[in-house]
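[Archive record]
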Amino acid sequence: MVTTGGAASTRAAACSTSSHVAAPYPVRADGTIVTATDHGAPWFVLGGVKHRFLTLWFSSLMGYPAAMRVSASSSDLDAIPTGARLGDPA
């Protein structure tokens, strides 16, 4: 049975469009590993603050492979507050 209009078509339209909507700032989500724009050590985002790994090697040692990293523009990275470095002995 085909229906036009009503709640059924509204739900179907919402379902078909919602899967195609991307998060506005996926780089800022907690737990995101971000590739550094200067090709240095990656950043880890936690609580809305980015934390740079001490080295690229240290991020791999912590279990974050390159496949988990996302790219970000320098303006996206600059918009996130900077926190302490990860792996810094200080």
